[in-house]
């Protein structure tokens, strides 16, 4: 693997919290990726959804398919930049491990946990790989490398960063206090996540009937590729036209991110991965594409995420989460045994709910309350 001098090199990793002997055939970041893929939390992502709840149909994106799409896009950008593809794949596959059932379940869980430290899904993803996975005899969690963990923790409040710093001085929370950057691989995954979201929400939104292809074609970023597809293939219509326009839009964003990042790296001239952390973010879009992507986000927010059917489903999903939280706090014995024995009851309840798939949460809510919500 020919890495740039400013890429994260597994030979120079800041290591694992618990030292381990190296693997004979894999780098440290390959081991991280493999541990994530084999984790229980990763398997559950197949039944956790994005905008749509799992009961609404089998063809819509889940958090598993989203994570795979992010990993593919991230690797496509990483290679021409000579960044570490194994690391970007590991980060991409793990970035949603802490997400709650339902797209807005995290808001409801944060509300329930407000007096008990709050709930952040990025922090929960880190908690999953640091503590909650139970696969190894000598440690909790997956014992991932520092660089993978810093990429997973995309956002973090100052209060939570301070808590992390007290537990791990100079560790994963330090950059949120110092206002420094993560490595380029982590920055890249943030951009790939954004690219994937816009594309698959258009696809799922049109196929669900909540928005129309004609509506999206009026948005400049998508519209230019829609027009180009129709000019080149006048016979295209329906799903083929949607897929072709979306494919072109995806490619344009990938190529823009590569070119804009190359230009910014050339100007900043980092000589080492630690230089990257002291510089402003280097992985980026051009200003023109960033503005057009913002227009698309605004369109999706007002026409898809705030569609009456979506908001109704969101409200019910939040009611499920709030109902489960209240029931488990009142009757901890209703949770699995491993959670009832924990010292911090409220955090144990949040961990239990956050780990649920959509359909398990719906079934549990009906079992505990006698009310059937969401299908």
Automatic annotation (TrEMBL):
Keywords of the record: Hydrolase
Hydrolase among keywords: yes
HD domain location: 63-198
GO biological process: dGTP catabolic process
Region of interest called Disordered, as start-end residue ranges on this chain: 1-27
An example molecular function term from Gene Ontology annotations: dGTPase activity
InterPro entries named in the record: dGTPase, dGTPase-like, dNTPase_2, HD/PDEase_dom, HD_domain, PHydrolase_assoc_dom
PANTHER family cross-referenced by the UniProt entry: DEOXYGUANOSINETRIPHOSPHATE TRIPHOSPHOHYDROLASE-LIKE PROTEIN, DEOXYNUCLEOSIDE TRIPHOSPHATE TRIPHOSPHOHYDROLASE
Similarity annotation: Belongs to the dGTPase family. Type 2 subfamily.
Name assigned to this protein: Deoxyguanosinetriphosphate triphosphohydrolase-like protein
Organism encoding this protein: Ramlibacter montanisoli
């Amino acid at each position: 693997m020919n890495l740039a001098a400013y890429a994260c090199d597994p030979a120079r990793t800041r290591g694992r919290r618990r030292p381990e002997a190296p693997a004979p055939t894999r780098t440290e970041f390959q081991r991280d990726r493999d541990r994530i893929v084999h984790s229980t939390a990763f398997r559950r992502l197949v039944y956790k959804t994005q905008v749509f709840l799992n009961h609404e149909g089998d063809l819509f994106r889940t958090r598993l398919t989203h994570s795979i799409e992010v990993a593919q896009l991230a690797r496509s950008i990483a290679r021409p930049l000579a960044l570490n593809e194994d690391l970007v794949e590991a980060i991409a596959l793990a970035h949603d491990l802490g997400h709650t059932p339902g797209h807005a379940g995290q808001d409801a869980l944060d509300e329930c946990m407000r007096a008990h430290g709050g709930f952040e899904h990025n922090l929960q993803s880190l908690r999953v790989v640091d503590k909650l996975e139970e696969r190894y005899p000598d440690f909790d969690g997956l014992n991932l490398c520092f660089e993978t963990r810093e990429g997973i923790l995309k956002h973090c409040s100052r209060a939570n960063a301070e808590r992390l710093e007290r537990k791990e001085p100079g560790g994963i929370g330090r950059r949120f206090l110092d206002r420094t950057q993560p490595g380029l691989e982590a920055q890249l995954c943030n951009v790939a996540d954004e690219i994937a979201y816009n594309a698959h929400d258009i696809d799922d939104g049109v196929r669900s009937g909540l928005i129309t292809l004609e509506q999206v074609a009026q948005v400049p970023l998508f519209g230019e590729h829609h027009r180009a597809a129709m000019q080149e293939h006048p016979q295209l219509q329906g799903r083929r036209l949607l897929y072709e326009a979306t494919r072109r839009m995806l490619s344009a964003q990938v190529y823009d991110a590569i070119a804009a990042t190359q230009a910014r790296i050339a100007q900043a001239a980092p000589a080492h991965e630690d230089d990257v952390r002291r510089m402003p973010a280097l992985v980026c879009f051009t200003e023109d594409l960033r503005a057009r992507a913002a227009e698309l986000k605004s369109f999706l927010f007002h026409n898809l995420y705030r569609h009456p059917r979506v908001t109704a489903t969101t409200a019910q999903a939040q009611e499920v989460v709030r109902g489960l939280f209240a029931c488990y706090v009142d009757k901890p014995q209703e949770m699995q045994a491993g959670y009832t024995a924990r010292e911090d009851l409220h955090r144990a309840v949040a961990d239990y709910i956050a780990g649920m798939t959509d359909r398990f949460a719906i079934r549990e809510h009906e079992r505990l309350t006698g009310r059937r919500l969401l299908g």
